[in-house]
Write a structure and sequence with these properties.
Layout: H1 2-15, H2 27-40, E1 57-64, E2 67-79, E3 85-97, E4 102-110
Antiparallel strand pairs: 1-2, 2-3, 3-4
Length: 111
């Protein structure tokens, strides 16, 4: 519940601020960045599958001062070091800097 309130508050703050630029990245691009980040933390990234990846919770929070803010959460199935498939939940905030065209990840969690 706190997370939803925080996201809502950030959305209100960020929507009212900044320039009228629109974030150039598509939903597909944001998801790819997030899923690549998740894979980079796994022991066996080549085994990763993302059930319902098109339905993972992606929220575009807004843009402020040329930085686009997103939040995403979802599940990943991947093999562990013993060969068993384990499902984990991930969440993170993503920022895309329009001037440098670079991504930044914050509050990344994989449980």
């Amino acid at each position: 519940m706190k997370r939803i309130l925080l996201i809502g508050l950030l959305g209100v703050i960020l929507t009212g601020c900044g320039k009228d630029n629109t974030c150039p990245d598509t939903e597909k691009s944001v998801r790819k960045q997030a899923l690549d980040k998740v894979k980079s933390t796994l022991q066996l990234p080549s085994t990763a599958t993302f059930p319902n990846s098109d339905k993972n919770g992606l929220i575009e929070i807004g843009e402020k001062d040329g930085i686009c803010h997103y939040y995403i959460e979802g599940d990943v199935d991947a093999e562990n070091s013993f060969g068993g498939i384990v499902r984990s939940h991930f969440s993170m905030n993503l920022e895309y800097n329009m001037s440098t065209e670079k991504w930044n990840f914050e509050n990344f969690e994989l449980k």
